[in-house]
Structures are given as structure tokens and as C-alpha cells.
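Protocol step 6 of 9: fold each sequence in the batch and record its C-alpha cells directly after the sequence line. For illustration, a two-sequence batch is reproduced in full.

Sequence one:
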Amino acid sequence: MKLVDSFFSRLARKLAKLPNATGVYFFYTAKQELIYVGKATSLRSRVRNYFSAGGKGGVRRPIGEFIRKINDVKWQTTGSALEAIILEANLIKKFQPRYNVLGKDDKSWNYLGVTKEAFPRLVPIRQQEYALPQSKPGKQNKQNKIEEFVYVFGPYPGLNTTAALALLRKLFQFSTCQGAAPRRRPCFYYHLGQCRGVCTGAITPAEYRRQVVRPLVLLLQGKKQSVLKFFAREMKRASRRQQFEEAARARDQLKQLRRIQDVALLNRSFIGKEPGTPSLRSGQARIKEQMRIEGYDISNLGATEKVGSMVVFDQSGPVKSGYRKFIIRTVTGQSDVDCLAEVLERRLGHRDWPLPQLLLIDGGAPQVNRARQVLAAHHLALPLVGIAKGPQRKKNDFILNTQGLASSAAIRQWVERHQVLLIQVRNEAHRFAIQFHRARRDRV
């Protein structure tokens, strides 16, 4: 009994030292066998969830045999959720911890593959679609080479691949265009500064492999410091050659990598999933990577029944499964600007929702400026478009904010060419807000 009390006391002291930081945690047996590796946005809260108050020494065993095998807990902090995801995947591949391997049966383990093309793309792969060959620990490059891909990285348990690909595209500007033939018009991501111009012939295959694929692969191998050194060298090299646009691009990539903003990388539905337990969402189909525009509007009758709407569009039109309604809770009196700020704050609190490539506001400069402040508070830089409607809703003045973004002129050109689409998004956000407001008013 004294030995048991001593174990619980030692474990409780160790749990008390857990930092409230992003990182990876490790569970060991009494023989120092690594049996589970997990990631967390908060190591303190995630690891403590495995244990709860009560029983001997203030700790009880909530998940049976797995917890009874844990004799020691260790952890490693990381600078971002992305780095935690990469570190976890590399350690699982290297050590094959017993309870991580059991968890693979639920088909929720995603991989990322670099395609074997002249201009390689980074694409998601589902566990059930590919069975990777096994190799000796540490032989990552050999293990990653399968028929259709130069590299396959993972597994990434519970990864929100849509959000991960969106973040990695912003960081490395890899192409999502199939085929190397130049198009008459550049793709959407080129206008956002998230594509190096494969679609226009602006970059050669050799340049693309060195400037885009090489640093991307290094990061997915867990070598972030090598990536930082690479972009620092690229910046100096371009400056010496007076290639100032290239130098500015490398500088911006260096800055973004040092402060990775990775909201929504982890699917919340998987965060609470215990090792070895099947996921309820194992049959979910892979979500196709798409452009995402979010439109917002506020509706009220004076100072009463204030509501907000969020609509989502992609290349094909409205995505009604992404629509959201908000009842304004914190704003007293009538202030559309304050209502909009509340809606955006609450929306950005949902890390399981993928981030858009563009935000559209039904309103003018005051609304756009307030939205920019909310994004800045969350360390996000996204194109913001407001459409001022006028008293009769016959006015369509576009207000564009691209503060903190590269290629602002190209984004402005894209907005000018797609005004009809953006007006459609604005009108749908307005319709959805009015519909919700009327429904609430009719119930009163």
C-alpha cells in the first residue's frame, strides 16, 4: 500500500508541473517502455484529463487497463500546434507505441503526401486508402516513398487536414494546380499570394522544387530550424542579387514561420479520444480542399433582438452546412459595429471551423476597420472586403483592407473581377440574418 501511495504522490507532483503550453506528452510503463504519444494545445489540461480527483493519493484510474500501465509522464513543449502535430507523427512512426498502433484501427489517421509531378502538390491521404510499407525506425525517407508520391508524412491522428493544408500553403505557397501548362488566368491562390505562379509559368520546376518543396519537406520532417536558416539564406541571396521581391517574400515567410498562427489545426472531435478507442466519425469522407469565403451581417430592430449571420461560399456557390446564426449577448443599445465584433470573436473561438481565404462584411469602413482589429487581436491577417449598401440597398461601394498581406494589388484585382460573386455573398448574409431576426421576433 505504501508503494501505491508513493506512486500516486509522485505522479500527482509531476502532473502539477505540467505547463499550460502546446506540445507532446509521453506515457511510460514501469520498465520505461513508451506506450503512448499524444499532442495537446494545453499539456496541463490534456494530460490531467486522463486522471481525476479521488481515490488514493488524489488520483483515480478512469480508463482502465491503459491508465494502470502508466508509471511515468514526460513532455516536450513546442512553439505551435503544427510543430506538435509533426513531432507526434515522427515519434509514432519511429517508436510505434503500443496504444498508438491500436488507435489506427479507427481509420481517422490522416497522412500528407507530396506528389510525384513536375510541380509537386501536397495532398491529404486517408488511412484506408494507402497501406504504407514498414521499415526500420529512423529510415524515414525510404519508408515515405510509395508509388504515387515522393514523400508521405504521418500518421497524423485526428488532424484537420483542410486547416493544415491551408496553413502550409500560406507558409510555403505550394501549388494546388494539376498539370504544368500555363493558364490564361492565374488561380485564386496566386491572387492571394499563396501560389508561386505555377499556373502562369512564373516559376520553373527546378526553382519550385528548391524554393517550395525543399523547405516544406524539411518542416514536415520536424526540422524547423533548418527551414528558418534556409529562408534567411534565401533573403540574403536575393538581396545581394537585387531581387527585392524575392527577398521580401523570403523575409515574410521567415516572419510567419517564427510566429505560426495555427488556429483550427486539430479537429475537436478527436481531441478527447482515448488511445485504442474507435472514433464515432470513422466513416467520414475526406473533405475536398476548396476556396472558402465567409460573409457576415447584423440584423436588429432598434436595440432589440440583435442577431448576426455567417454564410460560407466556395468555388461552387453557397455551402449551407457552414452557415451559422448568432444571438448578440454582450452589446447594449444599437451598435452594428460592436455586434459584428462580438460575432467575429465568437466565430474565431471555434478552432474546429476552417479559416476562410477572404472575409466579407455587409457594411462600410467602420465595420471593416472593427473587423480588422478583431483579426489583429487574434494575430490573423486575412483579406477583408466590406460592401456599403446605402439606405435603399442600391449602393455597392467596395472597401478592401489587405493590411499585413503580401500581393495586395493582386488581391484588389481579384476583388474587382469577382464583384458579382461578392455581392451574392453579401446578399445571402443579409437574407440569412433577416430570416433569423424575423423568426426570433415572431416568437416574442
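Sequence two, same batch, same settings:
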Amino acid sequence: MVDVNIMLAFSPLEPLYFVFGWLTRVLYNFFGNYGLAIIFLTIIVRGLMIPLNIKSQKSMLKMQALSGKQAELQRKYGDDKEKYQEALMQMQKENGAGGLSGCLLPFLQLIFIWPIFRIVSGPLIYLSEVSRENIDLMIALGKSMGDKVIGPVVNQMNHIGLVKALSENTQFLTECVKRGFLRMDQMVDLHFLGMDLTMTPAWNPKLYIQDPKTYFPLLIFPILVLATSIISMELTKVMKPGYKEEKEAKQREKNNPARKGQSGTDDATANSMKLMTWMMPAVMLWTTFTMPAAMGLYWVVGSLMGILTQIIVYYMFTKPYEKKKAEIEAKKEAVFKKSARAALAEGNTDGKSSGKGKKGKKN
């Protein structure tokens, strides 16, 4: 059987864990506060993704601008999907649209969850720099003193129970220090604003009755996670290019069933998009109730950073694009009206001339 600890030590994401752990340790030593270290780690990580977010938005705007040409390609190639896709990719390449930035951003956000989780569930390794061997020795010692000392589920990946035992059990801490498994200066304070960030917010009402001072403050994290994720989700919908036109098209479809399909999305696609949209907040809320509170803090700050990024991108790129698009549409409409008036005036002139000719001929 393969040793779990060996698998953890040689994880393909271990270099990423090391970098995130080092950065968190630097921030913790600078601020002297675990919560602030998590907050600024999140700001740095999400801040580094802002250029990618901007690139993704610019690519989306270019795709929006090419929608007319895309429709022409669809008419040109009809049912020949292979040639249509080739032509579409060529058009996107020539105009700098498309690319992997739109797919890469959510992928990176998902990948970065793992090192954050490793840090918040294994602070003795990533913050205190306790060796993995000493972690194993302390776990073995704790178990030899009874399962109640560190709890039944403790390993290198998740040793929150070990941290709690070291903080609350003086005899166990003394024995670990005496045997050289841990130095006193390696003990870290994992509280923030009076809350223990190693604790997990509870969904069981009994725990709030038994220990209200611990669990009621932690409830702020699930509430903020849900609120910020919903706000971010709504902003994504409202601030996307063409939202106004899409909303108007859907309203026309609602008022007149004969127009159904003009908004560009069928019911199945719309339902799938709605499901995907709500899935991320649901996952975030679930993890908040199953992981240490530090993970909930990461989600909240990450959502706030996402909201800030959306606002920046909207006012830098989307709004100017929508304004320029509206100006072009207004000019086209003005030209069309002018041409229509000229054609009408010319028709009236021709009609009068024709009438005069008929009268002259009759005379």
C-alpha cells in the first residue's frame, strides 16, 4: 500500500503549495496576524489575475464586435460545421479575439483553491515550518495519549486537530517540546478579530446552543460568502457586453411568442447557464461549512476582489465599448432616416412631375 504522506510530499502541485506557504509565512511575520495574512494573500493572488481578467474581457468585446461577421459565416457555410469552425477560428485569430484567456481564468481560480486549503488546514507545515516527520511524530504521540487528545482524523494534509491539541493541552505541548518535535517559537496564533480561524462554521443548531461564543461569530463567513457571491454573479450578468439588448430581446420574446429565439439562447441553454451560474456560490457555501473558517475568509475577500475587478473592467472597457457601439448605431439610423426622407422626397417630386405631364398632355 502506498503511504499517504509520501503521496502528499510528491504531489504535482507541491511547488505551488510551497510558494503560497512561503508568501503566507512572509505576510504572517509582517503583520503578526493570521487573518490579515490570509486577506493580503488573497489580494495578491487575485490581483495577479486582473490582467488576465482584462484580457478576457477585451477578447469578449472583440467577439461581440465580430458577431455580424460570425452571422455571415453561418449563412455562408450553412450545415458545414467543420468549415464554419475553421473560418471562425481564422477570423478570430486575424482580429485578436477568442483565445484561452476566458477559459484559463476560472481554471486558475479553481487550481488556486488547493494551495489555500493546504495552508489553512496545515499551518504547522506552511506557517511554522515544522517538518513533516515531526508532524507524524506528534500525531503518533497524541494518539498514544488517547484519541481524544488530537481527534481521530489528523494527517499531514489536515492537522487542525493537532494545532488545537497543542493550544489547549499543556501536557501534550510540553511533551512535544521536550522531545524536540516543536519549538515554542513555532506556535502561531490563528485567531482573527477574536475568532478562531481553525474552527469550522457549524450547520448544526445544537452547537450554537452549546457554544454560542465560538460558533455565532463564525456564522458571519457563510453569510458574507453567499452575499458577495450573489452580488458578483448579478454584476457579471448586468455588466456583460450587450446585456441591455439581450434583456430587450427576451422581453420581446415574452410579449410576443412568435419572436422566440431572437435573443440567441434557447430554453435549454438558458437553464444550463443558470445552473452553472448558481453552482459556484453553492460550492463556496458548502466549503464554508466543511472547512476551517480561514477558507471562508479567503472566499469573502476573493469575491470582493472579483467585484472590484468587474467594476474596473466595466468602466475601462465595456462601458466605452457600449457607448461607441450606441454612437455607431445612432449614426447608421440617422443615415437610414436621411436616405428614407430623400427617397420619399424624390418619390413625391417624381409624382408631381408625372401629374403635371399628364395634365399637359390632356390639354
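Proceed to step 7 once all outputs are recorded. Observation for sequence two: Residues 128-187 form one domain.
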